[in-house]
Amino acid sequence: MPWILLLLAAFFEIAWAIGLKFTEGFTRLWPTVGTVTALVVSVLLLGSAAKTLPIGTAYAVWTGVGAAGTVVIGMMFLGDPVSAARLTCVSLILAGVVGLKVFS
Hints:
Keywords: Cell membrane, Membrane, Transmembrane, Transmembrane helix, Transport. Belongs to the drug/metabolite transporter (DMT) superfamily. Small multidrug resistance (SMR) (TC 2.A.7.1) family. Gdx/SugE subfamily. InterPro entries: EmrE-like (IPR037185), Small_drug/metabolite_transptr (IPR000390), Small_multidrug_res (IPR045324). It is found in: Cell membrane. By secondary structure, the protein is mostly helical. It has one domain (2-102). The protein contains four helices and no strands. It has helices at 2-23, 29-49, 55-77, 84-102. Helix 1 runs antiparallel to helix 2 and helix 1 crosses helix 3. It is flat. The chain starts with a helix and ends with a helix.
């Protein structure tokens, strides 16, 4: 169960990171409300998962999945540049996340 909470936390991290793009510097009300809500939910879920998982592992997985997911969504839907180097780097992040899961 803590791993499921951690993955949900990471998905909410992706949501708030992408949401930042739409807040326009926190000047648009509803995108700001959605972004802040996703941020709070993400941190609460991370805190719940960290009750039983090692904090270093939980934090690294949370940020790794969040970063990789944000990069991929940016490339797929927001016009971020796509290159072999960027895809390789995202793959390395995900490999690290899988390694932390396997060895935890």
